[in-house]
Each structure stands twice: as structure tokens, then as C-alpha cells.
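FAQ

Q: What does a record look like?
A: Structure on top, sequence underneath. For example:
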């Protein structure tokens, strides 16, 4: 299990680590929206309210967000970007290669985080157990407030009439009112199918 809840915020050495929580992604039509709250929790304290837990990668073709230990997540972001470059922007291939490395590398196995990544076609959850999970319904959430955000998003999808961005915003606000490790200072990013059609450009290494 991913060590994301408050009850599991200490390492084997007993050191308390900074953690970030709830990330939600929803696909409606040709648009995928991803939202993350801004709260960083350190033990029993809220250390930051406006953290940015999601970002665009691969020239805007990919969205990525994290739940778990903050420093570990940044390491995984870097690794994932490298895999995207090697795979020329192929999200699924990059995800599989990252999880292989994550599961087998002695250092990476100790990282306590979970990634949610998406392009205009698919949404994937990545974990250190070697999992690459694609949700059946085009909606998934990770983090301590994930179950609340996911339930709300599914309800909005069933009702219909809302776009992906509206659904993630409304659902995350419900999670913020329910989960004490999630706040209402949201970052929301979107990607559309026509935007993802631009040629992939590899990162320039300095």
C-alpha cells in the first residue's frame, strides 16, 4: 500500500516526512482535466497551503500529479520525464518503464509516493509495486482525499452536463470539505486531444 495516510507518515527510522495529498483526473470527450489541492502535511502540522502538485510535461502533452512524500515525488517526476523522452512522448510505454525501474531499483523502492499521469487519450496510476492501472470509467483519484473526490466525480459523470474541468473542480471542493489532509487551494490543468497532436520535442539537456 502507498504510505499516504497520516497514520503512516513516519519512515522506518521514525522520521516524519512532508506529504501531499488528493489528486483527481477526469476525461470527458476529448478533454482530460487534472486537479490537485495545495496542502502539504508534516506530521500533525500543515506546513504549506498552496503547493503545486500537478504539472504539464512533454511540451504540454502530458499531465502528472503526485500523492505521498514530496521529495520522493519530485524524484519520480524527473525519472518519468526521462522515460517520456526515451519513449518520444508515448505515455503508456514511459509509465511501464518507470514502474519497472521503480519496483526493481533498491533506491527507488524506498520512495513513498504515487503518480497519476494522463494524456488526451488515457489516464494511468503508477505505483512502486509495479502497477500501471488504467481506470475503466475515465476517472481516478489518489491520495488521502481520493475516495471522496472519486465518488463525487463519478456522481457528476452520471448526472451529465458538466465538462472535465468543472467536474474536477467541484469534486475536489467536496473532498476539501471532507478530508482534513485536503484543502481548497486547487491547481487545475487540462489537455485536449487537438493540443496533444503537436510533434513531440525531446528535452534539451544543458
Amino acid at each position: 500500500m502507498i504510505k499516504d495516510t497520516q497514520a503512516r507518515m513516519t519512515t522506518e527510522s521514525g522520521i516524519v516526512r512532508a506529504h501531499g495529498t488528493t489528486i483527481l483526473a477526469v476525461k470527458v470527450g476529448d478533454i482530460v482535466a487534472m486537479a490537485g489541492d495545495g496542502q502539504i502535511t508534516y506530521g500533525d502540522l500543515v506546513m504549506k497551503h498552496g503547493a503545486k502538485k500537478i504539472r504539464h510535461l512533454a511540451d504540454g502533452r502530458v499531465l502528472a500529479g503526485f500523492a505521498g512524500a514530496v521529495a520522493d515525488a519530485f524524484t519520480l517526476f524527473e525519472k518519468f520525464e526521462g522515460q517520456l523522452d526515451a519513449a518520444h512522448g508515448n505515455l503508456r510505454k514511459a509509465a511501464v518503464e518507470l514502474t519497472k525501474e521503480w519496483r526493481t531499483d533498491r533506491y527507488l523502492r524506498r520512495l513513498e509516493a504515487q503518480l497519476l499521469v494522463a494524456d488526451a487519450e488515457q489516464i494511468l496510476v503508477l505505483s512502486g509495486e509495479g502497477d500501471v492501472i488504467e481506470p475503466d470509467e475515465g476517472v481516478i483519484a489518489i491520495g488521502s482525499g481520493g475516495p471522496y473526490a472519486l465518488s463525487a466525480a463519478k456522481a457528476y459523470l452520471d448526472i451529465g452536463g458538466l465538462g472535465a474541468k468543472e467536474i474536477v473542480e467541484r469534486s475536489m471542493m467536496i473532498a476539501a470539505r471532507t478530508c482534513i489532509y485536503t484543502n481548497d487551494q486547487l491547481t487545475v490543468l487540462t489537455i485536449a486531444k487537438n493540443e496533444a497532436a503537436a510533434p513531440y520535442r525531446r528535452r534539451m539537456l544543458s
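Q: Is there anything notable about this one?
A: The domain at 6-189 is CATH 3.60.20.10 (Glutamine Phosphoribosylpyrophosphate, subunit 1, domain 1).
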